[in-house]
Design brief:
The complex is a heterodimer. By secondary structure, chain A is α+β, with helices and mostly antiparallel strands. Chain A contains three helices and five strands; from the N terminus they run βααββαββ. Helices cover 33% and strands 27% of the residues of chain A. Chain A is globular. By secondary structure, chain B is an alpha/beta fold. The chains are: A alpha+beta, B alpha/beta.
């Protein structure tokens, strides 16, 4: 998968299930290390969930875009959608020490389980999460 | 997600099987509401067969905990797989929920 893989998902609930199935396959291709594989799957799922929940469903005529590619021992992925995304979400003020809020933990999970994450505005009105995973570090449970 | 419900004495045990995410969260919340509606005051969620959890799944568990507290009931969680425990630890929900390594210990703790 040296060439980028690009998938555009319609903004609908069934896409959540389909995306998770695809992310699981991609994570299995990426690494045989169970822990790293789970990290990749969890982060991609979390980022896609966020795009679905916080994205603008009216304006998301272009769908939710997922891109991924490998480069040497690294795996790169991005998820782009129209909408506010993580940066403007309630997560900014989330306190894991005291809160028992029902939402707001996705960003923490993404930051902890990926090796690098960037949030960028794309083309003015789209918002993207850009992820990097180092595949050379074997971790294991 | 499949949810298998059974009772050990006055303790309701919900055994969860599958992925705990946005699409399954409402199923779990409904199942727990049914338990509380039956005036059950003790509940164990056995997560042994949960093979994936994300923030939406965690949100469902927190929602259930709130319902349990409002009902003046008590809830324990048991049998976290390593990858599920890792997510609990990252989000520090390990400090909020009462978590046990196995179901018997969770039941005995009431």
């Amino acid at each position: 998968m040296n060439q980028p893989v690009r998938i555009v998902f319609p903004v609908s609930e069934i896409s959540l299930k389909i995306a998770d199935e695809i992310f699981d396959v991609i994570a299995r291709i990426a690494t045989s290390d169970a822990k790293k594989r789970h990290h990749i799957l969890t982060v991609l799922s979390e980022a896609f969930n966020n795009a679905y929940i916080h994205g603008d469903k009216v304006l998301s005529d272009g769908g939710i875009e997922f891109e991924a590619h490998f480069d040497e021992n690294k795996f790169y992925a991005s998820i782009i959608n129209r909408g506010k995304g993580f940066a403007d979400s309630k997560m900014k003020g989330y306190s894991v020490d005291t809160d028992i809020a029902e939402s707001g933990r996705g960003l923490k999970i993404i930051k902890e389980l990926s090796d690098r994450v960037d949030f960028k505005q794309v083309d003015g009105n789209r918002f993207g999460i850009f992820l990097e995973f180092n595949l050379s570090s074997e971790s294991g449970y | 997600m499949d949810i298998h419900k059974r009772y050990e004495g006055d303790v309701a045990i919900l055994q969860l099987d599958g992925q705990l995410n946005l699409t399954s969260a409402s199923t779990l919340k409904e199942a727990s509401k049914e338990v509380l509606a039956n005036d059950t005051k003790k509940m164990v969620l056995n997560l042994e067969k949960v093979d994936f959890i994300n923030s939406s799944g965690l949100g469902a568990l927190v929602s259930i905990l709130k319902d349990v507290r409002n009902a003046r009931a008590s809830m324990k969680i048991s049998n976290l797989a390593p990858y599920v425990k890792e997510i609990f630890d990252i989000t520090q929900l390990s400090n909020i929920f009462e978590i046990f390594t196995d179901e018997n210990k969770a039941v005995a703790s009431f």
